[in-house]
Each structure stands twice: as C-alpha cells, then as structure tokens.
C-alpha cells in the first residue's frame, strides 16, 4: 500500500515538471517571435529640390558723398563789401556770392585803358615816321641806318602797346575777381568772413560749395564679395541700384554704378565703388549713411530651399536627404544669400532632384527609414523610387 502511494506521488511530480517546462518554453518562444504586424514608418515633411530662377541681389553699407566740393577763395585783396546769399542756400553756377570793394580795381582798369590809348597813339606816330623814312630811303634821301632807327622805334612802340594791353587784361580780370561767383550748381555752407573784413589770396576759405545733384553713394567690397559679384552679375547685364536710408526707408530715385576703382586698397583689401543718384530736391546729404542695394535683372538658376530645412550643429551646416528607400542621411551644405519668404540659396552640397526633409527633425536620425510627406502635392508622383 505504501509502495503504491509513493509511485503515484512520483508520477504526479514528473507530470508537474513537464508541464512547467512546457509553459516556460512557450513563454520563451513567444518573446522571441516578432509580432505579426510591424510598426508604421515615421512620416516627415519633405520636398524635392527643383532649380529656381533667382535675380542676384547684394547690399553694402554706403556713405553719401558729393561729387564735387569747392572751397571759395578771394583772388584779390580788399574789404568784403557784400554777401549775396544765406548760409545753406542752393546756388546756381556763376551766381554772385561775395562782392569785394571794387573802387581801386575800377581805377586800375581806367588807368590801364589810358595807357593803352597812349601806346596806340605812339604806335600810330612811329608807324607814320617809319613809312615816310621808307619813301625817302628809296629816293636815297636818308641813309639805311636812319631807316633802321625809325623801324626800331616803330617796333618798340608796338611792344609797349602790347604790354599796355596785357596790363589792361590783368586789371579787368582783377576787377572781375572782386565778384566771387558759384563755381557750380550746389549748396553753399557757412560763411567764414563777415562783411567789412579784409580778405585776400592768403585768407582762409570763404565758404564751401558742394554739388548735390547728382550725388554719390560710396561703398567698398571685399575681394570675396568682388568675386561673387563677378560670378552672379554679368559684365554687360542690367541692374537696378537703390539706396536704403538708415531708418530703413527707400530713396525713391534709382541710381547707376558710375565708378569702379582700378585697384584694391592694399590696407583694407577692398575695392571702392560709386553709385550716382539724382538728387534734385537735396534729400540726400553728404555724410549720410545707408545701404546700397544692387539687383540684377538677369535671372540665374539656383538651388533654393526653405531656411527651416537647414540645420546646424558644432560640426557645421547640413540638411537631411532621403534616398529612394526613404533612408535618412546627413549632407553638409554651404548656404548663400537669404531670400524673401524665408528661403535660402545653397551654394554647394545639394543638387537638383534631391529630396530633403523640411520638418520632423526631432523624430529622425541618420540611416533611419522614413515616409516622406511632400509639401507640394505635384512632387508625390516624382519622388525617388528604387
């Protein structure tokens, strides 16, 4: 009886061990077997790169400078009799500005005129004597030496007349210099001297006249910027040139590049360029700062992508590119100018036809396979395929 009970217990324990082993193996194989349904792929916003026509545009800090600036000086000495302008006036070429007391210069002209009249009379007399002597010489009534003497007197009188006329020219010019006129159209500044002061050639500048129309916006470009201009702007291509004031407002008149220096400045390694602007109203003032904006009217194809698609970390600037399977890879890029609508030109690193990720960067990593959701529905049919 006891032997039968012992065998039954042993059989029960064996069955239990087998059952536990079966349960354990089922659990192990369950853990190792993948689920029948796979997880869905991560979706990211994407776009296929297509070249866009871009009108190259650059901007430089510029300073307004007058094309000409002339300091007025007295050419003759005398007391300043009149000032014929208000400081800051717009003046016209040859407009009288200062009058130096002319009395002494008028007298000098009259004296020089009298000397000319006297010399002319002397020439007339000497000429008549010389002509009579010539007739007498032909009849052998005077010697040759006498003829030479009268000819010398005549030629000397002519020289005296020429000298008198030259002195008259100088006297007239000095009288003319008593009226100081504007050398050009422009704006006149502060007057250094007041009426009644003695001025002359050794005096300081009386006032300064600057040309205001047209006027220059002067700026400098670095060597790298110059190379970029040569690349993007055709030598014979048309451009529009505008001036942006320091407050951000745009000057209504457009300008034109009218001077490019022939050599780089050795100290700054920059090239000076001038853009000329019409300035009839004098709105632009010499010394004013702003920006010159140059835009080409000749479009060129460029790789343009949204700024949000460009990423940056400690190692550089890059974008995420998808291959035909949707596999993510990092592509280093060099970005160029920023455009309107938050777009940016890519100078190198991306090519036409590449598919880039534009949103969803926090969900992806290199070598991960994702599902692109194209921002432009037209690109769905043209997405990369195996």
How would you sum up this structure, described in words?
This protein is of the alpha+beta class. It has three domains: 90 residues, conserved putative lor/sdh protein from methanococcus maripaludis s2 fold, CATH 2.40.420; 99 residues, Efflux pump adaptor protein, beta barrel domain (Elongation Factor Tu (Ef-tu), domain 3, Beta Barrel); 139 residues, RNA polymerase II/Efflux pump adaptor protein, barrel-sandwich hybrid domain (OB fold (Dihydrolipoamide Acetyltransferase, E2P), Beta Barrel), CATH 2.40.50.100. Helix content is 28%, strand content 33%. It is built from four helices and 25 strands. Strands 1, 19, 20, 21, 24 and 25 form a six-stranded mixed beta sheet that branches. A six-stranded antiparallel beta sheet has the order 13-16-3-12-15-14, with helices on one face. Strands 4-11-9-6 form a four-stranded antiparallel beta sheet, with no helix packed on it. Helix 2 runs antiparallel to helix 3. The longest helix has 36 residues. It is elongated, with a radius of gyration of 48 Å. The N terminus and C terminus are likely disordered.
Taken in chain order, the helices and strands follow as HEEEEEEEHHEEEEEHEEEEEEEEEEEEE
Estimated structural class: alpha+beta
> What is the CA-CA span between the terminal residues?
78 Å
**Average pLDDT:** 87
Q: Biggest β-sheet, characterized?
A: 6 strands, mixed
How helix-rich are the residues, as a percent range?
25-40%
Cα shape: elongated
CATH architecture of the largest domain: Beta Barrel
The number of E-state strands comes to 25
Rg, alpha carbons: 48 Å
**Count of discrete domains:** 3
